[in-house]
Amino acid sequence: MQPATVNNYPVLWNAKTTAEYLGISYWSLTELARKKKIPFVPIGDRPHFRKEAIDQWVIEQEKASTKPETNRFGIQKIKE
């Protein structure tokens, strides 16, 4: 039986494949997972990643990077 794939990739990716897909180091990715800053599925003691969740996470990161900064009261900061 063949494993389920999306575009010839397994449905769950290991950290090496995910890091290559994102263009970051393996160590950076595992640190993001350890800090629970990126979605992952723990299998044993290793994180695995779904492409759909990673793609959505990238979109969310992009949106967050373009939001104006606000203070703790939700008031937009003025850039000088």
Q: How many E strands?
A: 5
On the 0-100 scale, what is the average pLDDT?
A: 86
User: Which stretches of 5+ consecutive residues score pLDDT under 50?
Assistant: none
For this structure, the CATH topology of the domain at 11-63 is: Arc Repressor Mutant, subunit A
Q: Strand order across the biggest sheet?
A: 3-5-4
Q: Tell me the structural class.
A: alpha+beta
For the sheet with most strands, the description reads: 3 strands, antiparallel
Bin the helical content.
Answer: 40-55%
What oligomeric arrangement do these chains adopt? Answer: single chain
List the helices and strands in order. Answer: EEEHHEEH
Classify the beta-strand content into a percent band: 15-25%
- Alpha carbon gyration radius: 16 Å
Note the gap between the termini: 61 Å
Query: Which geometry do the CA atoms define?
Result: elongated
Number of H- or I-type helical stretches: 3
By CATH reckoning, the class of the domain at 11-63 would read: Mainly Alpha
CATH homologous superfamily title of the domain at 11-63: Winged helix-like DNA-binding domain superfamily/Winged helix DNA-binding domain
The CATH architecture of the domain at 11-63 comes to Orthogonal Bundle
InterPro entries: SinI_DNA-bd
Protein name: Excisionase family DNA-binding protein
Organism: Ruminiclostridium herbifermentans
GO molecular function: DNA binding
